[in-house]
Design brief:
Elements lengths: L1 E8 L9 H15 L5 H5 L6 H11 L6 H19 L11 H11 L1 E6 L5 H7 L9 E2 L12 H10 L6 E5 L2 H9 L3 E5 L10 E3 L9 H6 L13
Parallel strand pairs: 1-2, 1-4, 2-3, 4-5, 5-6
The chain binds 6-O-phosphono-beta-D-glucopyranose (BG6) and magnesium ion.
Length: 230
């Protein structure tokens, strides 16, 4: 096992394209409540917990409801989301993800999941990737949601690595902030402008150069404020 670095993957929007299902389920609720919910609005929900997502959504619609109603909506949103999840299969693994895990296996670099989702284990099982991760940190194991670094710090413990030797792959602003707050190297997957606080940016996982881990990371560019190499 390579002891130089460890890798932590976010799930939704990095390994699988479940962000679109979250969006559809939240949009249905917004429709029901009578306000417009756009993909741009959806960016602020990415990476944050289910409960916080509802609060943000209600804020966008300028809607105040009782705690009881909130619990009802959280349940119905998740039920609708799960309808999409149960239909998922390995064909919904995002391009480059399986290959990247293969590369890490070949290099002997350990990796765990660091997701805000309480559905993470189920999703990984649906796409047949559950067995590949040496640890899972999900929405059930944390008390503070991203951008708090807790999820990734627990991930580092599972990897038995110091935070500064961990590399995090994230598609959400809150996730990049969490990785940076954990003193880890952040790799933003998606729009570079949106994820401009990441140490590295790629549009998707297929863009990661073959030597990203072996040469770049192992050459200790794990320090902050280095010029971006990619
Ligand atoms: C994150 C998603 O991974 O998980 C968020 O980016 C989502 O959009 C959060 O709200 C919680 O997911 P779940 O599956 O527990 O509702
Ligand atoms: Mg994500």
């Amino acid at each position: 096992m390579n002891k130089t670095i460890g890798v932590i993957f976010d799930l939704d929007g990095v390994i699988v394209d479940t962000a679109k299902y979250h969006f559809l389920a939240w949009k249905d609720l917004a429709d029901e409540l009578g306000f417009e919910f756009t993909e741009t609005h959806n960016e602020s929900l990415k990476g944050v917990s289910r409960v916080q997502s509802l609060e943000i959504l209600l804020g966008i619609g300028n809607i105040e409801i009782s705690e009881e109603k909130k619990q009802e909506y959280l349940l119905s949103k998740n039920e609708q989301y799960l309808e999409y999840i149960y239909k998922m299969g390995p064909d919904e693994i995002l391009p480059g993800a399986s290959e990247l895990l293969d590369t890490l296996d070949e290099l002997g670099i350990n990796y765990v999941l660091g997701s805000a989702s309480k559905n993470a284990p189920l999703i990984l099982k649906q796409v047949n990737l559950f067995h590949r991760f040496s640890g899972i940190v999900d929405g059930n194991s944390v008390s503070k949601a991203k951008p708090d670094p807790e999820v990734f710090l627990i991930g580092a413990q599972k990897l038995n690595m110091q935070p500064k030797h961990c590399v995090v792959f994230e598609d959400a602003i809150a996730g990049v902030e969490a990785a940076n707050a954990a003193n880890m190297t952040s790799v933003g997957i998606g729009d570079k402008q949106t994820l401009n606080k990441a140490h590295f940016n790629f549009n998707d996982l297929t863009e990661i150069p073959e030597d990203f881990f072996s040469s770049v990371i192992s050459e200790k560019i794990l320090k902050k404020n280095e010029p971006k190499l990619y």
